[in-house]
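Molecular record:
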Amino acid sequence: MQYSIEVNNQVEIFDLNKVAKQASGAVLLRVKNTVVLATVAREDVQVEEDFLPLTVQYIEKAYAAGKIPGGYVKRETKPGDFETLTARIIDRSLRPLFPKGYAYPTQIVVMVLSADPEVDLQVVSLNAASVALYLSDIPVNRPVCGVRVGYIDDKFVINPSNSELKQSAIDLYVAGTKDELLMIEMRSLPQQTTQLIPMVAIEPMIDPSLSDSMAQKQVMNEFSEDKMVEAIDFAGKAILRASSAYEEAFKEHKKEDAVLELKPEIENENVAIYIDKFYKAEVKNAINQMAKSERASELGKIAKQISSDEVAQKEGWDEAVISNVLGKYKKKIVREQIINEGVRADGRGLEEVRPISIETNVLPNAHGSCLFTRGQTQALVVATLGTDNDAQMYDILTEKAPLVEKFMFNYNFPGFSVGEASPLKAPGRRELGHGNLAKRALAPSIDLASPYTIRVVSEILESNGSSSMASVCGGSLALRAAGVNTQKLVAGVAMGLIFEGDKHAVLTDIMGLEDHDGDMDFKVAGTSDGITALQMDIKLGGISLEVLKEALYQAKRGREHILALMTQADKNIEINEDVLPKLELFSVDPSKIVDIIGQAGKTIKEIIEKFDVAIDLDREKGEVKIAGAQKSSVDAAKDYIIQIVSKDNGKGFGGRRGGKDGKPHKTPEFNIGDEFEGEVKSVVEFGAFIGLPGGVDGLLHISKIKMPLKAGDKVKVKISEQKGHKISLSLAQ
């Protein structure tokens, strides 16, 4: 059975009861030339643990784009980062729909069978998975819809194509039902704009008679809180349209809900009553234990004490049951304190940020580092600079050629950060998600035209909530500590939300306990001018725009507080110049690139070996990029290349101007300090070439020029250095 639904700027064609008929729910969804299969399967036996055993897998098939998988094994193997992150989006959007107490192992599998380069796979995949879940016998009685919102030419655009998204100022992904928002992901997309700038403003020493220049300026495109609410409201209306259309089309095909046993919220009410009457003070004291391990230890002692009580012995209360009820009771106490008293477990006010300490360049041999501590959350964030050869290459199903990523962010969360003796293993979904969030927050601040490849690594040394936002703050300062001239500092803060009846409370800078026992995890990162990245997950139910706006403005106040501390720390940064790699990027006449390469690459190989540098050449643009560990060697290699490309019929930097017979003169030997009045032969980007006795030219570097020069001017200079044909000059007094 086939349904065609035209909604939100795309036509969605659903095939029901056509494939995977033994699954609890299955749907085949086509949008343009993209085809996605979504299936839902459920086990009949509950798990003993008190959590929702939901697994979501998103799989991209290479054949969907007419490709054969690369690598030694020519088949799909472990999921890539995009697949993992997409699976997380689906999971976070659908998880709140399951009823309380549902404990049956459930698997949602989404497979991309055909991929259209212009179709957003994340939007299509979530909508397919949502309809498959809605059609199944699992008691989920409302479909979810996912939409992406762009901002192009000062207008919001619903579900832009992949090409259109590249022109957008933001990338906003929202999922929800017809009356509730469940999941939000947002990032600002930086753009390069062209501006007419007076030449004198670029280089004060240049001839004022020269024409003005077109210069590139990067815009971070932060979104204000009001604009963010407007964008989310726009997405919410689109979700309402689609969710209503799904429900109307598919409600008659929904399977009858299976008769399933749901676990009670409180396993034994008598235990809860007993705890409330005799152990309330002890539970409150345990809650006030800041660290997760300490709190768990105190609660464990209370459970053991209760199990040894006479009443527990007589009633046959198992210690595991007591622990379970104690955990639920602890949650109740945490929430009541916040709602009724405005007091948090650690004694803070609702808007109070934990104490912050910042140390920069704590690692002497790293390019840039920052130890960022906020309460009991601590991140050691390290920035490393590299060249184009260090960039990450990866495949995207909707792109023909591999993409090159020059900014990477890795997040690591070892067990010891929460007092656990767990083995160190490869990063999981959580680590990839947190790293991706931090990357999206910081990326707009990094120059799009930066010649460096940049890798930032966050090592979480201690965690009690909001470690991803600590990574953003530490990452922004680590970049500055590595000498990266970022546009602005970026800070992040994690917000929480608690609903009790008709009351609610918004919490700034949540700790682990509040994250676990709260109703919302809301992370906001940005500059003093607006938001660069946002992530929201609702655990139960949805959130209204009014409460969302309140949370955004409270997050702004928290962010401004943190940014003030970061600004002070930024002023005190001492850059490790000795360990920083040196990179020079300059332009030459494209026709001279062949001279740098030399016959069969001989010249460039000699330069690389002689100066111990890496060299990248762009033949079309005439760009030369030199990178090396030492500044002196990079500068020397640059001067050597300038000497090569400056030669023009025997004339050049320190080169020999030929005599009347066309034969070159022998380069004369000068003494350091010899003074001459020479004629300016030419003015270039890096200085001026001055004619010297003996038919040679010397270079007066731009840093030593005190007034504008032009060809033909007379200037008094002295010899500061001579190495063979290379002659460096300075102004004579």
About this structure: Confidence is low (pLDDT under 50) at residues 199-213, 649-664. The radius of gyration is 32 Å. Residues 150 and 157 are 5 Å apart (CA to CA).
